[in-house]
């Protein structure tokens, strides 16, 4: 069922793809049927099958990105494409193109910069038990570290305004790109929204490109890196606290023995404990200094974000008809 759009707003549908020849043709056709006025871009990330041919035959503009990894593809897409509204989805058919109007309507009517289509039931069964467990752990960890803005930080079904896309630095190279998007929105306190949507399963013969252990480790490292960049006092303060505790544990018996006998027979232990204490102080001071730097960077990013125009002029109205899929 097609939906009408306001002619002064351009919509770009961005689909990063790697070896999705079984599904990409149908995904592109359904997006074009749902939003005929939108332009569908498929970025082929070195596929070894007929993904590019199937996407082009279905009516998509196909562009190749040589750097392997979803983050590299998203960075290229956001740099290349100029539009008022961006819709990002996967090419594996797990996200329903018929839900696109609902995401875009929410983006406009709620005046958000990003709307995330959260996946119904993904933590119960994400295809593999390892994926489901990782989803629960990382979503809980995100809430503790960066705030409670999101309940599904790994969803690949998202709608963006132009100013979000053009202000997003996109430094990650792989599947951790969605985490980086979420932290960017949380750090700048951007208006965001979530919509609970059905999450489909891959067709028979199609396999996930996500590795539970390898990509889970990359995401964990991304958490640490983003925490260091956005909350340096908390990051280095935690390291300082660990070093301080280790120093006190090593120092305590040496001090007890010194007060009892007036001697320090375990000099190497004493030197090590003092070294750890100095490192602890150094980490705390590093955190304090970098916290001021981080605040300045966040202010600059916020000012740059505000300097970019959002879609249209004046107060936007809903431009897309309601989705034919009910949302709980």
From TrEMBL:
Organism whose genome encodes this protein: Mesorhizobium muleiense
Keyword Flavoprotein attached: no
Domain Glycosyltransferase 2-like: from-to ranges: 13-165
Molecular-function GO terms, alphabetical: transferase activity
Keyword vocabulary terms for this entry: Membrane, Transferase, Transmembrane, Transmembrane helix
Name of the molecule in the record: Glycosyltransferase involved in cell wall bisynthesis
Residue stretches spanning the membrane: 235-256, 268-290
Residue ranges of coiled coil: none
Cross-referenced InterPro entries: Glyco_trans_2-like, Glycosyltransferase_2, Nucleotide-diphossugar_trans
Gene3D superfamilies, per database record: Spore Coat Polysaccharide Biosynthesis Protein SpsA, Chain A
């Amino acid at each position: 069922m097609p939906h009408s759009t306001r002619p002064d707003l351009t919509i770009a549908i961005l689909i990063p793809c790697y070896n999705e020849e079984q599904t990409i043709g149908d995904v592109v056709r359904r997006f074009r049927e749902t939003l005929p006025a939108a332009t569908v871009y498929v970025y082929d990330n070195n596929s070894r099958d007929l993904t590019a041919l199937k996407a082009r035959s279905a009516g998509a503009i196909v562009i190749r990105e040589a750097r392997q990894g979803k983050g590299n593809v998203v960075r290229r897409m956001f740099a290349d494409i100029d539009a008022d509204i961006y819709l990002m989805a996967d090419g594996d058919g797990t996200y329903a193109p018929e839900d696109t109007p609902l995401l875009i309507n929410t983006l406009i009517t709620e005046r958000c910069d990003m709307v995330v289509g959260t996946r119904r039931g993904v933590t119960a069964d994400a295809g593999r038990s390892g994926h489901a467990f990782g989803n629960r752990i990382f979503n809980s960890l995100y809430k503790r570290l960066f705030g409670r803005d999101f309940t599904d930080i790994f969803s690949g079904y998202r709608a963006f305004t132009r100013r979000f896309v053009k202000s997003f630095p996109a430094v990650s190279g792989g599947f951790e790109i969605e985490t980086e998007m979420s932290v960017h929105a949380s750090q700048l306190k951007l208006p965001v929204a979530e919509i609970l949507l059905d999450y489909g399963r891959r067709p028979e013969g199609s396999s996930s490109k996500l590795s539970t252990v390898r990509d889970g480790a990359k995401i964990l490292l991304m958490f640490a890196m983003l925490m260091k960049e956005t909350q340096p006092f908390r990051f280095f303060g935690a390291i300082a606290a660990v070093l301080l505790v280790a120093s006190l544990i090593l120092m305590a018996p040496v001090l007890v023995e010194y007060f009892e006998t007036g001697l320090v027979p375990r000099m190497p232990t004493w030197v090590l404990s003092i070294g750890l204490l100095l490192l602890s102080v150094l980490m705390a001071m590093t955190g304090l200094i970098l916290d001021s730097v981080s605040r300045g960077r966040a202010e600059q990013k916020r000012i740059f974000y505000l300097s970019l125009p959002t879609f249209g002029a004046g107060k936007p109205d809903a431009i897309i008809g309601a989705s034919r899929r009910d949302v709980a």
